[in-house]
Amino acid sequence: MKRHVLIVGAGIAGCCAAIALARAGWAVSLVEKQTAWQFQSSGIFVYSNGLAQFKALGIMDDMVATGFSIDDGRNVYLNADGSPLLETFYPGRFEGHRLVPILGIRRADMHRVLSAYLQQLDIEIALGCTVERIEHAPDSARALLSDGREVRCDLLLGADGIRSQVRKLLWPQVQPRYSGFGVWRSVHHRPPDLVDKIMMMAPGLRLGIMPISSQQLYLFGTVPEPEGAWYARDNWAALMQSRFSVFQGPAAQFLDSLNPQSEVLYTAVEEVLMPGPWHLGRVLLIGDAAHASTPFMGQGGAMAVQDAVVLGRLLGAEASVESALERFSAIRVPACRFVQDVSRQVGVSGAQTDPGEHAKILTAMRATAQQRVDDFYAQLERFSDHTTTGKTS
Ligand SMILES: Cc1cc2nc3c(=O)[nH]c(=O)nc-3n(C[C@H](O)[C@H](O)[C@H](O)COP(=O)(O)OP(=O)(O)OC[C@H]3O[C@@H](n4cnc5c(N)ncnc54)[C@H](O)[C@@H]3O)c2cc1C
């Protein structure tokens, strides 16, 4: 009989784990709290390491066809007035594959692709459903769901994001931690000539511009915000406009066009720093539930997909679920912590509001930015190797 996994949360982690485990021969049930299949708009970057994971799941080509590829991997940095600052190039190779270096994609489009594969694999999804209680038996978990069902499974995955209910039930001591930053995002029509990934820098502020489809691009701006700050949704467009008004050059046309009807999102950025192991009995946390990161390296989604790929490999290969779960944390905890640490450092340096200190940071960036990109991806590749070679440190 097939082993059964219950996955809580149909975000990137949950959908990709469903695909990976279905392909590894498991029976998969997926429950999602939202009552409709609608995922927040705005965009997301996927770099070559994330695309390598999509490739391992067999879904990369559809992602690439749906999003916008930066084929030369170029990341253009500009000063606030639009003048050139520097350029870096992201690698187009990972795990031995030649890949698109940077893909921008609308989140809703990414979920449309994921949903098509869930359907193809006949994965049962219960919308408007969550887990209310979890009990352990020696070789299974039992979940009481909000729709009244009681489900016994060989493995329960908490893929329910930064405010994970599964984590709350089993690890109530682990709480998200506020990073000190807010992120403002907006979606715009893409002029045909805007084909670069652009990062604009000002003291304490960063503003990115990234194509996400043939028709659209998105803006994302980070700024220190007080903890607990709350802004009425109706004011988001005006607030985004005023927060980033210092930016001219290519950003000006998009900031100027913001109005109450614009598609704008505000997010207070939090992290989840959870020590391993990420499982208790037959319950495992993956994705943001276990390791939400600040967004400065654009890696949270890629880490969620890689969790799914690693888990699929381990559960397909290891004789016992217990040893697969042990190995999972040994492989994934250091890799995700590395990404969180680098991302946090990048955030802190970008938060420098003193113009003199900001200028020094830019001078250092000119000298070291490409080396830092290369070192970061080389380290991710080393972590990735451990999945296949069995090394864990
Ligand atoms: C501003 C910002 C920008 C980012 N940019 C990038 C980027 O460019 N590239 C990148 O790779 N990453 C990026 N990230 C990170 C990325 O968005 C996350 O790491 C990724 O979405 C995590 O996926 P997940 O499935 O673990 O969690 P989520 O995407 O949060 O999905 C969790 C799912 O679980 C559901 N759920 C929640 N609670 C319950 C419950 N109790 N019961 C059932 N279901 C539940 C939710 O509705 C949701 O569908 C960014 C993050 C932020 C905040």
N- and C-termini, Cα separation: 35 Å
* Average pLDDT, all residues: 95
Largest sheet: 7 strands, mixed
Strand order of the main beta sheet, please? 6-5-16-17-18-15-19
Annotation field: number of helices: 11
Report the count of strand segments.
21
Bound molecules: flavin-adenine dinucleotide
Description:
By secondary structure, this protein is of the alpha+beta class. It has one domain (4-175, 272-389): FAD/NAD(P)-binding domain (3-Layer(bba) Sandwich). It has helices spanning 12-23, 48-57, 60-66, 107-120, 165-170, 236-243, 249-257, 288-291, 300-317, 321-350, 355-389, and strands at residues 4-8, 27-32, 43-47, 68-70, 74-79, 84-89, 93-94, 97-98, 102-106, 124-127, 131-137, 140-145, 150-153, 155-158, 177-189, 197-202, 205-211, 216-224, 263-271, 279-280, 283-285. The longest helix is centred in the last third of the chain and has 35 residues, at 355-389. The protein is globular and about 65 Å long. It binds flavin-adenine dinucleotide (FAD). Flavin-adenine dinucleotide (FAD) binds next to helix 1, strand 2, strand 3, strand 19 and helix 8.
